[in-house]
Amino acid sequence: MIKANHHPFFVWFFRLYTNIMIRIHFRKVYVEGDTEKTTNPLLVVSNHFSWWDGFFIFWLNNKFWKKIFYVMMLEEQLAIRKFLSRTGAFSIKRGQTSDRHSLRYATEILQNNENLLLMYPQGEIRSQLEYPVHFKNGAEFLIKSSQPEVKMVVVLTDYFSFRKPSLFFYIKNVDPQNEEIKPEALFNNFMHESIEKQKAKAKAISDH
Fold this sequence. Notes:
With 208 residues, this protein is an alpha/beta fold. It has helices spanning 8-25, 53-65, 75-79, 97-109, 139-145, 183-206, and strands at residues 29-33, 42-46, 68-74, 89-92, 115-119, 149-158, 166-174. The protein has one domain (8-206): 3-Layer(aba) Sandwich (Glycerol-3-phosphate (1)-acyltransferase), CATH 3.40.1130.
């Protein structure tokens, strides 16, 4: 297992790099939903559809929550990009004993009020159009077993009639401990709501 090993220079560099890259490559950024700060540890559950995804939540955290950033990555991916561990990435290896070690490590991260942990429950990059999202083993365990604040974030992009795409964040606070339906269903319900909002935005923007 590769653990996170934050380094001030790498964290500073990636904050600067992320801000510049999003400013260059996206026409506008829209954020809708529950962005308020919290004094509790924060678990962010998001869809995973692009190379950009870690940068997206890293940007959200720097803008709104300002916590120490952690993200769970597949070990084979992190092994060839070990420098990402300096910004908060740690590894998980599916189907191995290390899987349990990684989940235990993630649970420990979520015991510190200053931390934010980003998790992609689908476990791999899938098309933005692939819906519903199916959670991998361990995702619901982490959501239900640790008791941080949970924010579900659906990220969508649209070009409309412009050369550059616009970037849309939909954010919702949830309390899986008090919900009657499973986290996977909670996330897919929210993704459906977000897609419907996106359709309405698309119509409004295209009408102008």
